[in-house]
Structure formats: structure tokens, C-alpha cells
Amino acid sequence: MSRPERDGAYYDAIKRRFAEERDLRLAYRPQGTQQFTSELDGQLARYARDPYGGEVAPRAPIRDTVEVLFIGGGFSALLTSARLREKGVESIRIVERGADVGGTWYWNRYPGVACDVVSYDYLPLLDEMGYVPTRHYAGGAEILDHCRAIARRYDLYRLAVFQTTVTSTTWLEGERLWELRTDRGDVMRARFVVCANGTLSKPKLSKIAGMETFRGHSFHTSRWDYDYTGEKLEKLRDKVVGIIGTGATAVQAVPELAANAKQLFVFQRTPSSIDVREDWATDPKWAASLERGWQAKRRAKALEEPMLTIGRGPAPANETREQRVARQERANIDYMMRIHRRIEELVEDPATAEALKPWYMFMCKRPCFHNDYLPAFNRPNVKLVDTRGQGITEIDERGPVFSGTSYALDLLIYATGFEVQKTGIWNQIAGRGGLELETKYADGIRTLLGIHTRGFPNLFIMGGYQASFQFNLTDMLQTQGDHIAACIDYVRKHGYVTLDPTEQAEEWWVQQVIANRGKTNRNHDCTPGYYNFEGESNRRQDGNYNGGFRRYWLHQGEVRGRMAESFELGR
Ligand code: NDP
Predict the structure, then answer these.
(1) pLDDT attached to residue 308
(2) pTM score above 0.85
(3) Ligand 1 center to residue 458 CA distance, Å?
(4) pLDDT-derived band at 518, boundaries 50, 70, 90
(5) CB of residue 516 inside a 6 A radius of ligand 1
(6) Is residue 2 predicted with pLDDT exceeding 60?
(7) What is the pLDDT of residue 307?
(8) 468 lines ligand 1 (CB under 6 A)
(9) Which of 118, 220, 246, 390 to mutate to test the pocket of ligand 1 (most atoms within 8 A of CB)?
(10) Residue nearest to ligand 1 atom 25, measured at CA
(11) pLDDT tens digit sequence for 254-301
């Protein structure tokens, strides 16, 4: 078969289609991020309830003081705590809404859950734990076990408080301590507080007219109801199931549902790009051959290489910036067209195959990797309901309604994602002079490295905006954890009590973020999704630092190299 001529017109035509598909979606949803709600209370409260933790164990309110307190018990808290322990910090408390550590991996237990970042890079502290993951891509259960093992190894369960949500975090200037109140009546104090609440932790639902009238069973993917489905989905054999959403979560859950449900309807608004997932069991010989520090070496390598990009390779001599951008763009389009061909090869029904093709630039949405998702649509019990960008806008007592058809379901699963990167979810943070963090950010986010923010001494933010964004999030979190542990160590060793970024240092970083975010039109050109605030225009400073991971990490070192200029250090 001859390849189509790939000249400028070929690429321009595809870019026009990308733009049409984006505009179609923007027209359907001018409300941007407001199309979702993550305020899951009242009738929606059941979508936030923890199905894994069991009864909330009664306990007396806590009133004490610790040295370092983490809000959230996922990887951010675990890997930073490990570094703090190495530096001799003994008094460490994790306060966590779930009933155990694990964060993302505590909440996301949907069938098929796994991490599609290579496990040897994704799981933190493998050197320290002397652990080699069992597969190239680890499953959710193994990752959750690893989280628990870290908590045991670093003695983090001793002071940990679970099934507890921090509701306010207030700086006490007199005592130079943070005071945290919780939904369990606790009043805890801490010298240092780390907001380790994750980047995607609060489940969100699309606001769909009539959703509360649905008579069947329903839940969000991060609150999987195994009582209803059965541990191996065996209770779905006689059930008609629907799933709304086709992001990374649905891509992993759909093959399992397809194999077990009597009938499955997949309600699609925008398809994901699905590439091959090259998974294998870890070779024990390879694992045994690994030398001490093997993971640290891999992490160091990640700092040298750009994140997930394609079409790299040697640049032609004398290439201008414009030529480089155009070359990358064509490589991205070629990648997406390869994804299209893969769909044609794997999906038998041509109309379904056509509907599953993503029409946007590579990395506009999170790329997915799965071998069973596309073939699932060849099963007679699976039907793709393609809403052609519109989405499900109505649900009646029987199920979702689209184009005049009401789909009668026993079970409706919302795979509609999470609120993004908000510091202090559920939690009102007030710094010096009672200034609330949200008020400070109202005119634009202001931080140093995305980690420190002036007026909030001894408070550290992990995984928030103005930090680098990495496909392998734990690479980024590890640099933040190392940095935070080093800052706390510095304060303790030098007889200081507080550390607060200077106005100058903060302004420098805000300008760094602005300068680097200005380099790309990417957000604007992309189809809406959580990567680009659902197409809302936003201030340049209210996003990630786009100057590259290595530079982000080098800047962390620079900041620590000039502590006196970077911070006001109080005794
Ligand atoms: P996403 O936000 O990525 O996806 C939500 C999905 O719901 C989208 O397909 C969206 O469509 C769709 N949607 C929303 N409202 C409607 C509606 N009214 N009708 C129809 N469809 C609707 O959430 P996920 O939980 O899938 O993934 C979140 C993130 O979690 C991932 O991007 C990834 O970072 C992480 N993750 C990582 C995994 C890993 O392997 N490492 C596995 C799973 C998740 P549209 O695209 O049009 O907005």
C-alpha cells in the first residue's frame, strides 16, 4: 500500500480537523470547568463515600504537637517522610482521609487498575526498600502494598491518623506553629506542614440533568463498589452496565467490564489515544543483577531527558526554532495517525473504529496504553455510544439519554475524572495575618518553585501548580520531597524556627513560570480537557512551570544554594 503524500497540505488538513473537533467541543461546553462538580454533598454525597475503609472507628479528638505534619498519605508524604527520617526527624504525622496510606492507589481500585508508567521508574524508594516490582507495569494492588511497606519501614503508622480530613490549617504567629483542625474534632499543631493532597484526588462528576433521578446503582470509578459488582465482577453477569467517560481510567476498566457484564455501553465524548502496552513479568535474573542505587541512576537519567516526546532524533544542521517546532508537530501528527491505523486494524466494525479515532495533537490529552481496550469493542455485548463531542447531557430514571434514546442500565459508572491540582482541598489555609491562600491566589498563583508561598511560613506544597509537570509524576515528587526535606533539615540544623520565601524570590519564580509558559500555544490549540482547564483562558502564572524538568530541578538546587536570599529565616 502506498503511503499518502505527506506534504504541507496533508498536515494542514489534519490540523484543520483537530481545530474543528476542538471548536465543536468548546461550543458544546462554554462553561469550561464549571461543567463539573466536585462538591459531592447532599444527594451526591454517596459518590464520595469511602467503600474500602469500613466503619469509621471512634476515637478521642487529638490535641498535640508534632514536628512535621503531612496532609495526605500518598506518595508525596511517603517519599518525603523517608528523606526526613534519613535526616533524623522523628516526629512525623500523616493525616489522611482514607483508612490507610496510598493516596491515588488507596482510592483507585477499579478492575484493571495499573500504572502505565514503567514500574521501575514509577514506584519510589525502590533502592531504599530493596524491592523490584514484579512487572514492567505494576498493578494497583502491588503499588498499594508498596505504599504500606514504606509506611511500615519508616515507622509512619505510629503517629498517622486515618479517616480524618483536615478542614483548616492556621498559622499561629505567637507560637510559630501551624494549628490544624479536622472533621474529627482534632486540634493538632505542627512546626512544618506539607500539603501532600495529590494532584487528582477529589472525584468530580459531570453536571448532567436528571442524574439524581437514576433508579439503578451508580458510583465513581475511584469509589468502586465491589459489594455490588463482586470482587471479580461475577455479579455483573446478568447486569446491563454503562460507563461515562473514556479517559485513562475507563480505558483500563472497560476491558474488565466487557469480559464480565451481560451488556456494556461505553458513553464517549472524546476518544483517548491508545498505544501498545508492552508489559511483562520482571525477569528474576535481571532483578538479581541490579546493583545498589539502580533506581537512583534511572531517576538521574530522567532528569537529563525530555519527558514523553516523539520524533526526536538528531536535529538537522542550522534548524531554526520555527523549523524545530514544525518538525515536532509533524512527528506528533504522524504518531496520532499511527494510532488511527492501529484502531482500524483492531476494531472490526468500521463505524465504531471511525468513532474511536482521536482527533487532537499528541499530548493534548493523556496518552493511554492498553492492548485489550480497542478489541473489547468487537465483543457482541459491548456497544460504543459515541456522542460526537457532545457528551451525555441528560439522565433519566432508566439511564443516560442520547439522541432520543434512553439507555436502560442496572449500573452506571462515572469515569469522569478528578478536580485538578488544587492546594488545600477540603481545607482552608490561613497564613500570616490571617491571609487565606485562596485570597492570596485570587490575583494569580504566587509561589517559589510551586512549593513555598510567601506569608505561609513552614508550609510546603507538593504536586501543585508552578511546579514542573512530568508524565512520571513520582520523578517530580521525588525532587520536591528531597528539596523539602533539605529545607527542613537546614532550618533545624542552623537553629532557625521558620522559613518563608522572600518577596523577591517569589517574584522571580512567578516570572520564570510566565516566561516559560508563553513559549507554546499548546493549551489554546488543544481540544478541551483537564490539561488545558477545559479550554478556559487562564493567567499564564496559573499553571505548571514549562521550562523543563531538569531546569526545575536545577532551580531547586539554586534556591537552596542561596538560602539567605531565597528565604526569610526566623529564629
Ligand atoms: P479524565 O478526566 O481523564 O477523563 C474523564 C472522561 O470523562 C473524559 O473522557 C471525558 O470526556 C469524559 N466525560 C466527562 N463528562 C462527560 C459527559 N457528560 N459525557 C460523556 N463523557 C464525559 O479522568 P480519568 O479518571 O480517566 O483519568 C484521570 C487521570 O488519572 C489521567 O489523565 C491520568 O493522569 C490518571 N490515570 C493514570 C493511570 C495510569 O496508568 N498511570 C490510569 C488511570 C488514570 P472529554 O475527554 O470529552 O472531556
Answers:
(1) 55
(2) yes
(3) 34
(4) low
(5) no
(6) no
(7) 56
(8) no
(9) 246
(10) 417
(11) 999 999 999 999 999 999 999 999 999 999 999 999 999 999 999 998
String of DSSP letters for 243-308: EE--SHHHHHHHHHHHHHSSEEEEEESSPPPEE-----BPPHHHHHHPPTTHHHHHHHHHHHS-SS
Confidence of residue 1 (pLDDT cuts 50, 70, 90): very low
Please write the tens of the pLDDT for every residue from 359-406: 999 999 999 999 999 999 999 999 999 999 999 999 999 999 999 999
Using the mean position of ligand 1's atoms as its centre, give its distance from the Cα of residue 494 in Å. Answer: 46
Q: What is the pLDDT of residues 136-178, one digit of tens each?
A: 999 999 999 999 999 999 999 999 999 999 999 999 999 999 9
Given the CA of residue 400, which atom of ligand 1 is nearest to it?
A: 19
The preferred substitution site among 47, 249, 251 for testing ligand 1, maximizing ligand atoms within 8 Å of CB, is 249
CA distance 205 to 478: 30
Lookup: cell for 161: 491518623
**Per-residue exposure over 245-283, b if at least 16 CB sit within 10 Å of its own CB, e if not:** bbbbbbbbbbbbbbbbbebbbbbbbbbbbbbebebeeee
Q: What is the pLDDT of residue 520?
A: 61
Ligand 1 atom with the smallest distance to the CA of 414 is 7
Half-sphere exposure (Cβ direction) of 507: Cα atoms closer than 13 Å: 4
Closest residue CA from atom 41 of ligand 1: 115
Query: What is the rounded distance in angstroms from the CA atom of residue 507 to the CA atom of residue 120?
Result: 37
396 three-class SS = coil
Q: How far is the CA of 369 from the centre of ligand 1 (A)?
A: 14
Query: Is the beta carbon of 412 within 6 A of some atom in ligand 1?
Result: no
Report, in this order, helix, strand and coil percent for the chain, each rounded to 5.
40, 20, 45
- For residue 314, how far is its CA from the centre of ligand 1 (angstroms)? 34
For 491-540, the DSSP string reads HHHTT--EEEE-HHHHHHHHHHHHHHHTT--HHHHSPSSGGGGGG----T
Cell of 185: 474534632
Distance (Å) of CA 372 to CA 369, 498, 554: 10, 52, 40
Question: What is the number of the ligand 1 atom nearest to the C-alpha of 247?
Answer: 26
Check pocket membership of 247 for ligand 1, CB cut-off 6 A: yes
